[in-house]
Design goal:
The chain is an alpha+beta fold. 44% of the residues lie in helices and 20% in strands. The chain contains seven helices and ten strands. A hairpin with a 4-residue loop joins strand 4 and strand 5. The chain is flat. The mean pLDDT is 86.
Length: 220
């Protein structure tokens, strides 16, 4: 089904990669120009909602249950493989839903879940063991792929302090965040913690040099 879809969209190239586990086929597809209308959004990745937008919208609220299902299965069993496939499909569907019709999608660079990563601090030891780095890497890959297919622009920014910084006044302190609640200890601003982080992610891009050049490109 997937190959037939690609065949209808473009031309198959005479290039193949064959391994023990898969065969990779290449297609040449005319993608068209990027979208120059629509929303510009910042996206925070979390465990209670896979994607939280700066607008307050949340997508993928069943992600924690999907991961728990993988955790409950015996390692290497057919049930676990089925649960992992369901998790991947859920991530794919959520990515498409998030980026649909968007002009620009900005995310954090979540390369690995080391001890200083904010996502790791949010998860229990058992949840981290079940989740693994691949889910976050896979999530960002699918968001980027969905942007490419939908002709949205995709950008990423450094993740440092996005969950600790107050979007309203800029005050940065670990104590600003308490679970899912963000309350600034300087100005008193209160917000959903993930929404506040998503606003900081978008702001970090739009106020940076790449954000300025992107805006100029759109205007021209």
């Amino acid at each position: 089904k997937h190959l037939n879809k690609l065949k209808a969209m473009g031309k198959r190239l005479e290039s193949y990669i064959i391994t023990e586990n898969y065969v990779q086929v290449c297609y040449e597809i005319e993608t068209g120009t990027k979208i120059n209308e629509g929303e510009i959004i910042g996206v925070d990745t979390g465990i209670n909602a896979l994607a939280t937008l700066d607008t307050g919208e949340q997508y993928g609220k069943e992600i924690k249950q999907k991961i728990e299902r993988v955790k409950r299965c015996q390692q290497g069993s057919k049930g676990q493989k089925c649960a992992r496939r369901a998790l991947k499909q859920y991530i794919d569907e959520t990515a498409k839903e998030v980026v649909k019709g968007k002009r620009l999608v900005v995310v954090e660079k979540l390369r690995q879940m080391n001890k200083n990563t904010k996502l790791k601090r949010r998860l229990s030891k058992n949840m981290r063991r079940s989740l693994g780095t691949w889910n976050y890497r896979y999530w960002l890959m699918r968001v980027e792929a969905a942007c490419e297919i939908g002709r949205s622009s995709f950008r990423s920014v450094a993740p440092q302090y996005t969950s600790q910084r107050c979007h309203a006044c800029g005050h940065t302190e670990r104590g600003n965040r308490n679970g899912e609640i963000f309350k600034c200890r300087s100005c008193g601003h209160t917000d959903n913690a993930d929404v506040n982080a998503a606003k900081n992610i978008l702001l970090r891009f739009t106020t940076g040099p790449y954000g300025a050049s992107f805006q100029q490109k759109i205007l021209s």
